[in-house]
Amino acid sequence: MVDWSQVVQQHGPLVWTTVYRLLRHDADAADCFQRTFLSALVLSRTQTIHNWPGLLQRLGTARALEALRQRLRQAQRLRPLLAEVAVSSRTPEPDQAAAVSELSDHLRQALAQLDERQAQVCSASCSRA
Predict the structure, then answer these.
(1) What domain range is 48 assigned to?
(2) Beta carbons within 10 angstroms of residue 11's beta carbon
(3) Based on the structure, what is the number of domains in the chain?
(4) DSSP character for 88?
(5) Euclidean distance between CA atoms 55 and 22, whole angstroms
(6) Which residues of the chain are under the pLDDT cut of 50?
(7) Contact indicator for 108, 24 with CB cutoff of 8 Å
C-alpha cells in the first residue's frame, strides 16, 4: 500500500517545480499538481511504481502541457473578440522585462504545440539547465 502523504511530501516540490515552470500561473499549477497526483493514484492501482520521481515528473509535464493547450485554444477563440474591442491607440514600446515576459509566453505556447514525447525531452533538458 502506498503512503500518499509521504509520496506527496517527498516528491511534491519536484511536481510543483515542473508544472509551474511550464504554466507560470499559481492556480493552473495547483490544479495540475492535484491532477498529477490523481493520475499517479489511478496508475498505482494497476501497477507497481518503481520510479516515483520519473513518473510524477512525466505526469506533471503532460498535465501542464494539457493546460497550456487548453489556454492556447481559449486564447484563439477569444482573439477575434478582443480585436473588435481593441482601442486604436498604441501603447508605448515595452521595456526589457515586458519583452522577456512576452517571449516566455510564446515559448510556452510553442511547447504546448509539441507532441508529448518532444515536450518530455524539452522539459528534461530545461530542468538540467
Answers:
(1) 4-84+94-128
(2) 19
(3) 1
(4) S
(5) 17
(6) 87-92
(7) yes
